[in-house]
TrEMBL record:
GO CC aspect terms: endoplasmic reticulum
Residue span(s) of domain Phospholipid/glycerol acyltransferase: 90-212
Name used for this protein in its record: 1-acylglycerol-3-phosphate O-acyltransferase 3
PANTHER family per UniProt: 1-ACYL-SN-GLYCEROL-3-PHOSPHATE ACYLTRANSFERASE GAMMA (PTHR10983:SF9), 1-ACYLGLYCEROL-3-PHOSPHATE ACYLTRANSFERASE-RELATED (PTHR10983)
Record gene name: agpat3
Molecular function GO labels: 1-acylglycerol-3-phosphate O-acyltransferase activity
Source organism: Cyclopterus lumpus (Lumpsucker)
Regions crossing the membrane: 12-39, 311-331, 337-356
Length: 377
């Protein structure tokens, strides 16, 4: 075990995995670009192909969580709810407290066969991020600037276009609008007080517009809302960099299913329902802090081999020529080639580190609480 932990800590192995992810992602993005010719001919075929291409990329990140770091994900829910996973279109509400909360969500999507078709209401800045934003663009992900006056038309058009999606999808919403920090929490609770809303201890005040709009646009397609509350054992603070270094975490996810017919159709009543939901989520987090677990029965889902096999495929395809080239550079003895290769490694490591930085709490800000930013709710 000590030897395995040592190997996981080696920067060269981490760099090689990053190389596989980046290069395979560029190849996948190019193939996605080529599939655009199918859109006017057979839109549903285009969508099915891109779901599988996206799976090939996202599953590499899930592989890091499941196989490389060995992180465990335990569900707190009932069997009746689990039996519906992957068999219906749903909106998933997840708390936004951790750097890898999205990765835990993707892991659940993968285990129930809907990773490639998972959706999200993403901030517009991510569209410019290589691999992530580009892949999402081909998946018809809805990007918004979080300014309702500018987003209204784009969001309605994008969401309405998903009503005939051929694959079951989980549409992920971070209703808090941004990742939780103490500073943002203080500002959020000031807003709650000014609006006469109950204060939350572990969450930011939810922004209701995104949820009510998504529910309205996907009416007749979405059959349920999954409320997912995430926490980690032993007060762990997981990071994507920690996952890359092979650190193991223990994630607990409380999942509650709400049929859409039980959610008010009126926008104001729906907003009140969402605020109440977040009060319940806060109570769940308080219970977890005291007891070290969520209430209810536990279900442990098994990791599937496909994420590992997919990564091994790309690694075999891409690392063989890279290693042969590196050996050729060393054998040549050419100072110019060796220096050039070293510069390439430095640039590659910086690029990969910047991609990881997209998930980091300190580097993923928003205008939340900025007095000059327009309020959405």
């Amino acid at each position: 075990m000590a030897v395995l932990d040592y190997l996981k800590s080696l920067f060269i192995l981490q760099l090689l995995m990053g190389f596989v992810f980046v290069v395979s992602g560029l190849i996948i993005n190019f193939i996605q670009l080529c599939t655009c010719i199918l859109w006017p001919i057979n839109k549903q075929l285009y969508r099915k192909i891109n779901c599988r291409l996206a799976y090939s990329l996202w599953s590499q990140l899930v592989m890091l969580l499941e196989w490389w770091s060995g992180t465990e994900c335990t569900l707190y829910t009932d069997q009746a709810t689990v039996d519906k996973f992957g068999k219906e279109h749903v909106i998933t509400i997840l708390n936004h407290n951790y750097e890898i909360d999205f990765l835990c969500g993707w892991t659940m999507c993968e285990r129930f066969g809907i990773l490639g078709s998972s959706k999200v209401l993403a901030k517009h800045e991510l569209l410019k991020v290589p691999l992530i934003g580009w892949t999402w663009y081909f998946l018809e992900i809805v990007f918004c600037k979080r300014k309702w006056e500018e987003d209204r038309k784009t969001v309605f058009k994008g969401l309405s276009g998903l009503k005939d999606y051929p694959e079951y999808m989980w549409f992920l919403l971070y209703c808090e609008g941004t990742r939780f920090t103490e500073t943002k929490h203080q500002i959020s609770m000031q807003v709650a007080e000014s609006k006469g809303l109950p204060k939350l201890k572990y969450h930011l005040l939810p922004r209701t517009k995104g949820f009510t709009t998504t529910l309205q646009c996907l009416q007749g397609t979405v059959t349920a809302v999954y409320d997912v509350t995430l926490n980690f054992k032993d007060n762990q603070t997981p990071t994507l960099l920690g996952i890359v270094k092979g650190k193991k975490y223990k994630a607990d996810l409380s999942v509650r299913r709400f049929p859409v017919e039980d959610i008010p159709a009126d926008e104001k009543e729906c907003a009140i329902w969402l605020h109440k939901l977040y009060q319940e989520k806060d109570a769940l987090q308080e219970f977890y802090k005291k007891e070290g677990k969520f209430p209810g029965p536990t279900i442990t889902t098994r990791r599937r081999p496909w994420t590992l096999l997919n990564f091994l495929f790309w690694a075999t395809l891409l690392l063989s020529p890279l290693i042969n080239f590196a050996c050729g550079v060393v054998v040549s003895g050419s100072p110019l080639l060796i220096i050039g290769f070293i510069i390439f490694l430095i640039i590659a490591s910086i690029a990969i580190r910047r991609l990881i930085g997209v998930t980091e709490v300190k580097k993923t800000g928003s205008s939340y609480g900025n007095p000059e930013a327009k309020k959405e709710n």
